[in-house]
Specification:
Order of helices and strands: HHEEHHHHHHEEHHEEHH
Radius of gyration: 19 Å
Oligomer: single chain
Shape: elongated
Distance between the termini: 56 Å
Strand content: 5-15%
Strand order of the largest sheet: 1-2
Largest sheet: 2 strands, antiparallel
Helix content: 40-55%
Amino acid sequence: SLCLEFGAPDDVVLTVLEAYPDAAEDCGKHNDVSILPLVTAIRKKRALDIIKEMLAVYPDGAKRRLPEGKLPLSLAITTIGISDDVVLAVLEANPDAAKDMVSNDSSTLPLHLAIQMKRSLDIVQALLDVYPKAAEVTMMRERDEKLPLSHALTSGVSDDVVLALLATFPDAAKAKSLYYYGLEMLPLHFAVRERCSQELVKSLLGAYPV
């Protein structure tokens, strides 16, 4: 943990892990809170080789919850500037994390976070591959409720991400979302409102010709 906290070079961190694999399990202290080295490595945006080595010597690290309750996968998804490969490595180490609610109050899954963070198609598709049902789970916030498809249409993600969500759960095109002030809107309405591409509009109409 100290190597990571003090920004030791990658080769030094890897050397320490090779000599002392148990270091991947040793929690450091930050403000009297125990922090797993994997978590520190993710927060510090360390290289993929370091993340993979930590997961190789201590695979259960991907299953250990942070003090606030979320899993390393959710942390990786929401860490700005971290590579897709790191997120995918953490997901591969614990695929069940794709089913884990980030917050019981907000009904937020890692898929919702990936959309919110405008993550790539590779990450969104990987999450859908291990847990397709996530495309059917409504994300509830203080003033609106949306399925991932509608959430994606209003979040500025790539067309490929929206199409992947539609392909996984075509019936989402028929589902009205509760928007601000109680207004109900279809995904098509969001697409028009957000000035989405003609391809997306055609795909939505193909799934649900209103």
